[in-house]
Amino acid sequence: MSNFLFDGPSDAKVTILLAHGAGAPMDTASMSAFAQALAFAGLRVARFEFDYMAARRVSAARRPPPLAEKLMAEYCHAVDKLKASGPLIIGGKSMGGRVASMVADELFVAKRISGLLCLGYPFHPTGKPQQLRTAHLANLKAPTLIVQGTRDPFGTRDEVESYDLAGTIELLWLEDGDHDLKPRKNISGLSLADHMDILGTEVSIWADRITQ
Question: What predicted TM-score, i.e. pTM, was given to this entire model?
Answer without folding.
Answer: 0.96
